[in-house]
Amino acid sequence: MAADATLRELASRLLSARRVTVMTGAGVSAASGVPTFRGADGLWRNHRATELATPGAFAANRDVVWEWYQWRRSLIAACMPNPAHEVLARWSQRAGWCVITQNVDDLHRRAGTRDLIRLHGSIWELSCWSHCGGRRDPWRDERIAIPPAELICPSCGGPARPAVVWFGESLNAGDVARATEASRCDVFIAAGTSAVVYPAAGFIDVARRAGAFTVEINPEQTDASSAVDLAIRAPAEEIFPRVDRLL
Ligand code: BJW
Ligand code: ZN
User: Fold this and answer.
1) Which residue, by CA, sits nearest to atom 43 of ligand 1?
2) Nearest ligand 1 atom, CA 222
3) Which one, of 120, 95, 90, 91, lies nearest residue 106 by Cα?
4) Residue 41 Cα, ligand 1 centroid: separation in angstroms?
5) What's the DSSP call for residue 42?
6) Catalytic residue annotation
7) pLDDT of residue 135
8) Quick one: pLDDT at residue 19?
9) So what's the pLDDT on residue 1?
10) Are residues 131 and 226 in the same domain?
């Protein structure tokens, strides 16, 4: 249970801030029922989740990777945004307040978050595996019970892939530029992320170097805990509503 005085301090920082940025990770969707990547949750049929999220895994075993994504898509389709998503959606309406997410589940979008920066893409969008150029932008496809062989690029007929960012792949340069800019703020909150995946984890340093008051919300200690000004060891779905009530 986070102390009231700690949350009052955070609320008063937020009230005097001009620019506030919240970066979220898988832990923010945990209370909605979406499994996280690391720790006990990050296993799927003896595969480590992070080992399936690579171009090499897709090249070697497209059906297994697609099966994992279709399993996740059906699981996420049955999940609802939780109180953390709802508070962040309201905060995103405030001028100068911004949400960056590493999550691909679109639960922030479903909660109505404005100007959301999705660093790692969306599990509900597809793109052409061979970058054929006919479809430069990802397209939305929310069908779940589809055999992988039918998930094809409408332009070249080759395999489609989830339009998410895998290890070793570059993030969208425009998203990185917007996120870097948003990280130069007065209060930066990293919530529900293990802070091990770059460049996302690096935005906490960008914020600190720009003079932001940095905060972590996570029930566990992470690589970022010792670097932030305030580490709140509690679940995001509990803390965001409590802080919101103090604003
Ligand atoms: C709660 C909670 C509750 C639980 N409330 N909290 C610099 C240094 C070192 C390495 C690199 C570097 N720069 C780049 C790299 C390489 C690599 C990288 O970072 N590797 C490290 C792991 C070492 N990065 C990349 O490859 C990136 N690309 C890139 O940099 O391109 C340039 C380049 C090209 C070629 C070579 C080198 C560089 C791309 C990274 C893409 C990450 N993709 C994934 C999959 C997305 C698709 C999908 O979902 O299928 O993104 S991996 C996975 O990890 C996913 C997540 O977004 C990401 C982060 O995970 P997250 O959100 O932190 O989740 P967890 O599970 O780790 O943590 C959950 C946390 O929640 C825990 O702490 C819990 O305690 C907590 N929690 N309940 C609050 N209720
Ligand atoms: Zn194509």
Assistant:
1) 166
2) 73
3) 120
4) 15
5) G
6) 120
7) 78
8) 98
9) 63
10) no
- The pLDDT of residue 211: 98
Residue 77 Cα to ligand 2 middle (Å)? 26
In this prediction, residue 212 carries a pLDDT of 98
The pair of structure tokens assigned to 148 is 């992988």
Q: What is the DSSP letter of 159?
A: B
List all residues whose CB is within 6 A of at least one atom of ligand 1.
Answer: 25-27, 30-31, 36-38, 50, 53, 102, 104, 120, 164-170, 191-194, 196-199, 217-220, 222, 235-237
- Answer yes or no: do 236 and 144 share one domain: no
Q: Are residues 18 and 105 located together in one domain of the fold?
A: yes
Q: What is the model's pTM? A: 0.97
Residue 171 burial (CB < 10 Å; 0-12/13-18/19+)? Answer: middle
Q: Give residue 78's identity as a one-letter amino acid code.
A: A
Name the residue among 56, 24, 2 with its Cα closest to residue 195.
24
For the chain, residues with pLDDT lower than 50 are none
CATH code of residue 97? 3.40.50.1220
Ligand closest to the CA atom of residue 129: 2
- Residue in 246, 239, 212 with CA at minimum distance from that of residue 19: 212
Which residue segment(s) compose the domain that 39 sits in?
35-78+125-164
Task: Quote the ligand 1 centre to 198 CA distance (angstroms).
Answer: 6
Judge whether 2 and 206 are in contact, CB under 8 Å.
no
- Same domain, residue pair 15 and 96: yes
| Cα 92 from Cα 30, distance rounded (Å) | 21
Other Cβ atoms less than 10 A from the Cβ of 147: the count is 10
pLDDT of residue 166: 97
SS3 at position 157: coil
The count of structural domains within the chain is 2
Ligand 1 atom nearest residue 164's Cα: 47
